[in-house]
Amino acid sequence: QVQLVQSGAEVKKPGASVKISCKASGYTFASYGIHWVRQAPGQRLEWMGWINAGIGNTKYSQNFQGRVTFTRDTSAITVYMELSSLRSEDTAVYYCARGQDSDSWIFDYWGPGTLVTVSS
Amino acid sequence: DIVMTQSPDSLAVSLGERATISCKSSQNILSSSNNKNYLAWFQHKPGQSPNLLIYWASTRESGVPDRFSGSGSGTDFSLTITSLQAEDVAVYFCQQYYGGPITFGQGTRLEIK
Predict the structure, then answer these.
(1) Would you write out chain A's pLDDT as a tens digit for each of its 120 residues?
(2) What is the pLDDT of residues B11-34, one digit of tens each?
(3) How far is it, in rounded angstroms, from Cα B16 to Cα A40?
(4) Taking CB atoms and an 8 Å limit, are B104 and A113 in contact across chains?
(5) Which residues of A touch B57 (CB under 8 A)?
(6) What is the pLDDT of residue A101?
(7) Phi/psi of residue A115, nearest 5 degrees
(8) CB-based contact, A61 to chain B, within 8 Å
(9) Distance, in angstroms, between B84 CA and closest chain A CA?
(10) Which residue of A has its CA nearest to B50?
């Protein structure tokens, strides 16, 4: 069955970077896209962007442009999200979610989430 | 950005009764090219990942019980759960994928009365 397994919780200081992994299984990795979504405490979900896991092209939300980078390792069937210049407002649960196909924006499977805490 | 507004913020319904959640978009999310509404509904239970229920406003995802249904078009949408079950207690949120950044509703907390 389709599974997305994310890396564990992180605690970072302001100004640092964080890199979260999302390992896929149960489907053909390169045939789907992966989206990243976050939810800060008490806030609604916020879409960060998308990567085509096959060819690696990306689309980033303007809210994160210049601070976020998505990459993928097809041999490791893993997608990565790196967020830099962290600030306290970046404290959130970060989810990866699979699109229904390589460029779909319909999220049919989600990872369990990774809590990132930014604190001095 | 398209703003998604849900109502109510919380809802308590008796077991076996109907629950209806509304979602309004600040812009039209019906495509004139394919006549599809770019709206999805999700269920999110504590400690679990969100679960896709409905997409294209009214298409039920495989495996989702038929007591869940979606309706609406343009800017006004609703999710209806007929005959509420105990396992339906969750936060429900809508999402538009029409354009600009994908955006989400603030969520509606559904409880048992």
Answers:
(1) 999 999 999 999 999 999 999 999 999 999 999 999 999 999 999 999 999 999 999 999 999 989 999 999 999 999 999 999 999 999 999 999 999 988 889 999 999 999 999 999
(2) 999 999 999 999 999 999 999 999
(3) 34
(4) no
(5) none
(6) 86
(7) -80, 125
(8) yes
(9) 23
(10) A110
Which of A32, A47, A115 should be substituted to probe chain B, the one whose Cβ sees the most B Cβ atoms within 10 Å?
Answer: A47
For chain A, the three-class secondary structure string (H helix, E strand, C coil) is CCEEEECCCEEECCCCCEEEEEEEECCCHHHCEEEEEEECCCCCCEEEEEEECCCCCEEECCCCCCCEEEEEECCCCEEEEEECCCCHHHCEEEEEEEECCCCCCCEEEECCCEEEEECC
- In chain A, which residue's Cα lies nearest the Cα of B5? A44
